[in-house]
Amino acid sequence: MKKDEHQFCFRIRSSVEEQKWLGKPGVQLRVTELHVEAPEEVTEGETADLTCNTTCSLTDPTFIWYKDGRPLTTKTIKKNQLHLQTVSSEDAGSYSCAVRGDQHLRSTAHSLRVRHSPKNVSVYISPSGEIVEGSSVTLSCSSDGYPPVKIYTWFKGSASIGEGKNYSFPNIRSEDSGEYTCQSRNDHGERRSTAVQLNVAYPPKNASASISSSDDLGEGNSINLTCSSDGNPPVKNYTWFKEGGTSPVGSGHSYHPLQSGSYYCEAQNEHGSLRSAPVPVVLRGYSTILYVAVGVGLCGITAFLAVVSWRRMWTLVPVPLMTMHPVIMTTRILQTYSVSPVAKSDLNPNENVLLCYKIHC
Length: 361
Known about the structure:
Layout: E1 7-13, E2 20-28, E3 34-37, E4 41-43, E5 48-54, E6 63-67, E7 70-71, E8 76-78, E9 81-84, E10 93-99, E11 110-126, E12 131-132, E13 137-146, E14 151-156, E15 159-163, E16 166-169, E17 178-186, E18 189-192, E19 196-198, E20 200-213, E21 223-232, E22 237-242, E23 248-251, E24 254-255, E25 261-269, E26 272-275, E27 279-281, E28 286-293, H1 297-310, E29 324-331, E30 338-339, E31 359-360
Parallel strand pairs: 4-11, 12-20
Antiparallel strand pairs: 1-2, 3-5, 5-9, 6-7, 6-10, 8-9, 10-11, 11-13, 13-16, 14-15, 14-17, 17-18, 17-19, 20-21, 21-24, 22-23, 22-25, 25-26, 25-27, 28-29, 30-31
């Protein structure tokens, strides 16, 4: 190699101290080899020429170029020169040359560095896998650039949130969910990474029970309770309790209470559960459908009372009691019911039914 060029001498030494000789002027070693002449650095987009020189006397030689040890076949080679028309970052590397037929005698390698803006900017999340609220999470930014990137800026959405190669969440919260990017910058430009999504899982929050009524009559008979909460993954299991009790009274997003009292719901997902504050429920009455036959039940009692009242005034006309009809009765709790005397006009001669509308609630 060229660096081995020196003047070499020999020395003779014997066992006798005074008997030693040094041969001078010695021998001059000269090395003839190939070497690459090229700039050490070039900016992306410029042109560059690499020249393979030698002190040997060669007759019409054919030069072969190598990049990182592999022959180049796609570049422009003119005699002993390698021409890079528009340099890109991919052209950075180690170049050497040789003469065809003596490929084993390659030149020493020459390193070509290409100045360029950051490329291949990407963000990595550590640890990988599911992210649970309260855990520690770190975002790391990597990129290629020359000179090396030293300025990293982090964004959540479009808002800048910090700088540095890494961005950490020592105790991540549900509010930290969102899209994050990092921007790398050096002397030749800047580039931003594609966005990564942080999806923070957490147990139910803000559980609440609400009450609504669909009773058009205002009787308070159709009360509906609805439970709502926030969680990730979304809450799918709702359980209802009546205050003062230990066992559930219902399940599902909605519940229809049958008794007055205070009710609360419990929302649960795979990361925990949360109970809402209780809501009071007051039921003022309820409706039921009764199937009665005339002369049976309440209408029977009405008819009996009517007969007693008529004994002094009317001759009771027998009425066939055959038809059965459903009668909707509203029973009011702790209220008094009165029955007015039934007049003869209350009998419908065209129907085989004794009318019971003389009951006053």
